[in-house]
Write a structure and sequence with these properties.
Elements (H helix, E strand, L loop, with lengths): L2 H5 L2 H29 L5 E2 L8 H5 L8 E8 L9 E5 L5 E2 L4 E7 L5 E3 L8 H10 L3 E9 L5 E7 L2 E2 L5 E3 L3 E8 L5 E3 L8 H10 L3 E8 L7 E7 L4 E3 L3 E8 L5 H7 L19
Parallel strand pairs: 2-5, 7-11, 13-16
Antiparallel strand pairs: 1-4, 3-5, 6-10, 8-9, 8-11, 12-15, 14-16
Length: 279
């Protein structure tokens, strides 16, 4: 039988049909297995877990499709350890089973750490070293002297504290700063819309002290944000105390409060000599 006649024969066409059918069946099975493996089309809504305890969240049925990964812990005064401060992805996002949810939680204040040496540094450098070590700034105390913007002493509970001394995480340390008479002013940083943690850091870096804090509604370390402060002058004397007012950024009046706040421009008579106090 010639090839041409064989290709037209019923036997060939029958076998060809079986081959094509087998291929299609195999292709269908492969796609079904891939759908099962990738959970194609099956997505879960990520719940809001900010403000909850990490142990509580790990027991939630809604979180069973996901894996929680703690990427950092921050000491927050007045907050219990293990409280979730931020989450990524954000609530109401959709994700497949096995998606990692990255969180930052509050740290345990009982942990002991070694006191860093912040002397002979600028205020900005000392503040960053203190905060990055897990401690807080109590007061910035400015004394007239020969040098400008130089930390000369660190104080804990009224007494000098030296490098390496064990201190509980989250404790407050005062810094004594030497400043000459020509450098007595600083510019108020832009802290509107910042959280308490970020606003405090900005103020300390600018050689300002943190005063009273007022909250509209319940305090929330993630959503309570600065909408006003006092005094509201553009230029302040170093060591001045700034009081803060917070509103939860989920409240309807949050945006209007932020937009309505205005910085007071100092008059020429009110403005002290302003110099750059940072490095």
């Amino acid at each position: 039988m010639e090839l041409k006649e064989f290709l037209k024969s019923k036997l060939f066409l029958k076998h060809l049909g079986l081959i094509v059918l087998t291929f299609l069946v195999l292709l269908f099975i492969i796609f079904q297995l891939l759908n099962i493996y990738t959970r194609h089309g099956k997505e879960y809504v990520i719940p809001a877990i900010e403000g909850l305890q990490i142990e509580e969240v790990q027991e939630m049925t809604e979180m069973s499709p996901f894996e929680i990964i703690v990427i950092d812990s921050i000491f927050t005064p007045g907050e219990p350890s293990g409280k979730i401060l931020t989450q990524d992805p954000k609530p109401e996002s959709k994700a497949k089973r096995g998606r990692k949810i990255y969180v930052i939680i509050t740290a345990n204040s009982g942990e002991k750490i070694g006191m860093p040496d912040c002397t002979d540094q600028s205020v900005r450098s000392a503040v960053n070293e203190i905060i990055n070590s897990g401690l807080r700034i109590g007061r910035l105390i400015f004394n007239q002297g020969e040098f400008s913007n130089l930390v000369v002493e660190q104080i804990y509970k009224g007494k000098p504290i030296f490098e390496g001394t064990k201190i509980a995480k989250g404790e407050e340390v005062d810094l004594v700063v030497e400043i000459n008479q020509a450098n007595t002013a600083t510019t108020m940083p832009n802290i509107i819309g910042l959280t308490e943690i970020d606003a405090e850091r900005k103020l300390w870096e600018a050689s300002l002290n943190v005063g009273s804090k007022n909250y509209e509604g319940n305090k929330d370390v993630v959503h309570s944000r600065v909408v006003s402060f006092s005094p509201s002058n553009r230029s302040l004397t170093v060591g001045s105390t700034v009081s803060l007012y917070f509103i939860n950024d989920t409240k309807p009046n949050y945006s209007s409060k932020v937009k309505s706040f205005k910085i007071t421009e100092n008059t020429e008579e009110e403005t002290p000599t302003t110099t750059d106090i940072d490095e």
